[in-house]
Amino acid sequence: MGCSQGSSGAYRSRVVLECIQEKFRDMISEEESHKSSLVRRIEEHYRRLLSLSEELSVSPMEPSEELSLIQLEKELRDIVEVLKEKKTLKDKEESLAAHLGERALQLPLGSIPKPSDPLNELLRTRLASFSELKSAIIIAMRDLCTEPSNSFERSIVCERDESFLPLSEERLKRVGEVHSGLLEQKALNHKTAERFRERIRAISAKLELDEEGFLAENGGSSPSELKELQFRVDELELLKVQHMERFLVAARRELDAWWDACFYTQRQRSLFCPYFSHEYSEELLVEHEEEIGKLKAYFRGNESLFHLVEQRQTLWNKKLELEQKAKDPNRFQGKSTDFLKEERDRKRVEKQLPKIEENLEDAMEGYRLHMGKSS
């Protein structure tokens, strides 16, 4: 090649050496670049680790000091991934807890748990309860012909179930209170309507009017029906005033019936002076109605006792009747069946009367003890 063997060998050796050195420099440069990249990623992982640890309120996890850079980068990357998953789960927990108005659950520091079933189940339960209450509230408002009276009631009725947030225990309790209030109003309306209907029946019976058709048309307790019932009561009350004498006569007949039912003596009856008044007025009628009310309560409170008295009186009257027949000299001239029936009645009275009187004595003793304690 025109070069001496010695110089050619030295040149070629130098060229080879330079090539090898260039390769080493490239390798060193590449490794240094790789190392720099590892260091940057490690630093980034550290920053992310510290940030996530602070957000999760946990102490930063420290890898082993004996790890190589590659191992350290992988270890830090795995730790960051774990913390990111925990952060995602924590965010979901906090969002769910915010919807429920509850505190988020404390997540374990070890392995990643599954999504929280307790809060999801609680949300489903509360949504079901809210939906049920909402439907009942809408029905109650419709029955009462009313509308939401404030922003909270409007949010119950108008918003979608999923939008009624937070669905906390306290808010759900308030929804229940709204429902209870509507039910109480319905119960009050029903009670008022029944009182009106009872009054209409009482007055119309004394006036000999047929109000059953009107009552059938207004058998509910909606506001419109209450208005109709109230108006009819007012009309009948006016008619009652115009026919006061008839009402007082009817009241006195009813009073006589209750006096008889309670076995009042003539002296006891005479103590009620308004019975003998001829100055017909609303006040006089009220006094009669109050006395009737007292007698009704007295009878119902001692109904079993009065029933025994009535049984005893019936048997006693039968006994007197049989004794009177026994004195009749012509009683044997009748049919033999009449005589046999008379004997059967006598035996029945002789058997039942002592038992009834004994039961009556026991009942009277109980009544006296009760009245003694009451006084």
Automatic annotation (TrEMBL):
PANTHER family: FASCETTO-RELATED, PROTEIN REGULATOR OF CYTOKINESIS 1 PRC1-RELATED. It comes from Caligus rogercresseyi. One of its GO terms (biological process) is mitotic spindle midzone assembly. This is Protein regulator of cytokinesis 1. It holds the Pfam family MAP65_ASE1. InterPro entries: MAP65_Ase1_PRC1. Keywords: Coiled coil. The lineage of its organism: Eukaryota, Metazoa, Ecdysozoa, Arthropoda, Crustacea. It comes from the Eukaryota. Gene3D superfamilies: 1.20.58.1520. One of its GO terms (molecular function) is microtubule binding. GO terms for cellular component: cytoplasm; mitotic spindle midzone. Residues 339-366 form a coiled coil.
